Every structure is written in structure tokens, then in C-alpha cells.
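#struct-pred

JT: dropping the chains for the assembly here, can someone run the whole complex?
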Amino acid sequence: MRKVYIVGASLLKVDEQWGHSIDSLVSQVVDGLAEVRPWKIDSIYVANALGEILQNQANLGAIVAEDIGLAGVPALRVEAGGASGAAALVSGYQAILSGLADTVLVIGVEKLSDATPEEAVFLPSLSERYDLVGFQGVTESALAAMMYRMYLERYELPQEMVAQFPVIMHEHASRAPHAQYQFKTTLDNVLSSPVVSPPLRRLETTAPADGAAALILSSSDALPTIQHEQVVELAGAASSTDIVFPFDREDPLKLSAATRAFFEALARAGLSREQVKVLEIHDSYSILANLILESIGYSEEGASGVDAKNGMFDYGGKVVINAFGGLKARGHPLGATGVYQAAEIFLQLTGRAGACQVDGAKYGAMISLSGLGSAAYALVMKEG
Amino acid sequence: MHAVFRPPVNWRHRRFRYKLVVWRCLNCGAVHHYATSICRRCRSNRIDEDKLPDRARLITYTVVKNPPIAFEKQAPYIVGLVEFEDGTKLVAGITDCDPEELKPGTELERVVRKIAEDGESGLIVYGYKFRPAITRGR
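RK: done, full complex below.
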């Protein structure tokens, strides 16, 4: 049976890259794939969420193909909000499994630092229904804050059970050279940082970030013709959608798109959840870490905070989440984030994760969300 | 940045924004804020116009301290999740009160207020908000 492999990964430090444009970030990140030869790419997927607004630049398929000297190669841009990168990867996986492509280049790129502070609040909120939510001045952070409050009230928990996740993420990012925020923090710092929308604090959210990451996917048929160092099998990928307005869902605290995507991807890979030792989750708000871990079965409902406190999601625990700091501390360059997650799992499974290495990890998985779970994309990888 | 509010959009949504006129599925009861001929929940094509009640109850709320475009001058402001008798839920600005006056279950009534201004020369848009009920009856 035809299989899909990741044969190379490249990522830039997530940062405010004032001196760089989308084009120059793309050319830099693709330069990092120079070890993979020959450069015969059948198809290019470019993940980006906000180029037409922040850089007045749409049509990023053709533009990026030319930027990297591949004008002529089929290319398109994929947008699925914060999950654009993962959506592009799922598309590349499907293109290879369909037999129509043997080698696919997936690039995620985003430049959020071009936004004003008000745009930085407004634009991520565009993943929610504007006519119902944005029009009323309700930001995505405000929706997340109301889910957060509901969570604490339903399970009668102290805020620490949610607010500790950023502390874990910053600890992990302190060892990750490509992370945006490499400082450690404490629970006191998180809980005394400015209020964004109560109970949500500044250190429980992300900040504008620029970044680019890229992967080359290859079919098992083409693998012998490609020069590469180590490979990772992209063993399963799946996606799902949900009702967009979280409070219209049967239970706003259950991310059922994440549940469906994750278990379908695991099933395609023929793996069980227990075998996954590295997991990248979409913690654009601290509360989403809790909700994801509970929705994909790593914790009982309301118990992810206690589990995290007991070290279940850290080195030495059941599974290491966000070994490079996740969206919170590695950073969340919106459309590029999913490609970062996949590149980080590639580094783990090829033993190149440096100080962030999870020893003995053979299998890794990632989950990426659009908005507050209206779409979810999951990928599962195996050591090559 | 492009215009946030556009005249055709504002015109199209006027009855929903000013009066909470909706399109209700006669099969499952689901509410749509846009004209539709197919239900987003059950795919029935039995849809009819309806109007949400003028009263609702507060489920939960928060305060927006970091405002988005067009709301810069208003922050901080209260936003809440409200539920109508039929179970329909909306988020909306909560006005004429302080956060301390609100708790889950607070009875609210719909008012029409200015929502936001799109910069110096853009549209000024109006729509529904909710305030703690001060008039009688439901």
C-alpha cells in the first residue's frame, strides 16, 4: 500500500520579523530544505490565514511558487484560520495518497506583526461568525473567556487548573531555540498578568507572531529517488468540522471535531492513543489545552488540570505535550502554526529535537483547531 | 485596513439587527439569522420567518478590555451569552449596568443601541444589545 513520508522539515524562529516580508520568510525557510534533493516537486500547498488583509496579498500559491524558483509547479493557498497549516498538510497527504502527486511541498507562512493592536484582536476573531459574534464586539478571546468561566464553574475548579498550562509551555519553550518566548514564568505571573477578558489573562493567550515552516512529503514510491537523511511516516491524517458558535453545540466544553479528527487519524495509522508519546495541541487559549486533552481522551472531563499538575503531560509522564512550547510560547503565527507542529514532531521522531527531545518517542500526533474548534485537523506520525 | 461595515450588509441584516427577526425551522426549531431555504441542523426546507422574544436570560458574561477594530472607544465593555425561552442563544453587548449587577439568570431585555463606528468617515451601525430588565412582563 502507498504510504506518505515526511523527508525534510525546516522552520524559522517565531518572532516579530520586522525586516522580512512573506516572500523573504518563505525563501529563508525553503533554503533550510536544501539537503533534500532532487528538487522535483509535484505540488505546493501554502498555508496562510491573513495575507490579503495584512499584506494586501492574495493568490499566494503562484506568488510563493515563483519566490522559491518553482514557477510552473501547481500551487495553491489553503486557509482554515488557525489550522491553515494542518489543513495544508492534510491536503498534501491526500494528494499523495490519491496517486496524483509523488512529492509535495507544504509551506506555512504568516506575518502578524504588520497588524495594529486592534487588528491583532479583530483578525483572529474572523474565524467566528462575524454577523453574530464580531458584529457585537465579541472577540474570540471573549468567547474563550466565557467557555473558561463555564468550565471552572461546572467542575468547581480553581483557576490554577487552567492557568498552569502556560507555565508548562514556557518551561518547554525555554529549551527551544525557535520559540518566540523563551522565558520561564510562574503561576503567580500568569494570574497577575493583565486581564484580557475575565477570567482570561494576557499570559494565557498568544501574541502577534511572524513565522514560516516547511515540509517535504514524499510517496513511498518516490522515496528511493530522493536524497534525505531521516524520514518520518505520515501515517494518518483526518479532519472534521463542528457547529461554529461554541454555545450552539450540544456541550460547549466538548470539542467534538477534535475528537473525530484525532481518532480517525489514529485509526488510519493503526495506533492507539497510549502509543503516542509526543503530542502537539492547539493551546491558543489556556482553556483549549484542557478542552482538547479531555476531548481526545487523555483526561476525564474536568480532570486535565489535576493530571497536568501530577506531571502526566510532561517529561516522564504519559505523553509530553507541546515539547517546544506550543502556541503559547513557541508562538502562534496563525496560518503557519500547523506546519510548525508537524515539523516539531518530525524533529522528535528523528532524534533532532535537541534539549526538547522526548526519549524513546516512536509515535507522535498533533491536533490543530480553526477558531474555537469549529474545524479540527489531526496528524499522526511514525518513526521512519 | 478595509471598511469593517458596508452599507449593503447593514441593509441586508436590518430586521435581524433591529428586531431579532429570524428564520426558524418548522421541523426542528433551529433559528437562522440569515434568510435560508434549508435548515442548518436538520436540512428540512420548512422554514418560516419568526421573531425572537424581547426578553432573555443571562447565562454568563465577560468584559472586553482589548477591543477590536471599530470598538476602540468603547472598551472596556460587557458582553454576555444570553438564552431565550426557546433555547436560542446569542452573544451580545450588555449595557446600562456594571458587571457587579450581573449574575447567571439575570433577566434581560432587548434594546437597540449604537454598536460601533467605522472610523472617522465610515458607517455608524446600530443593532440589538441587552440590559437588565426594567420594564414589566415578558
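JT: nice. The longest strand of chain B covers residues 107-117. Chain B has one domain: 7-132.
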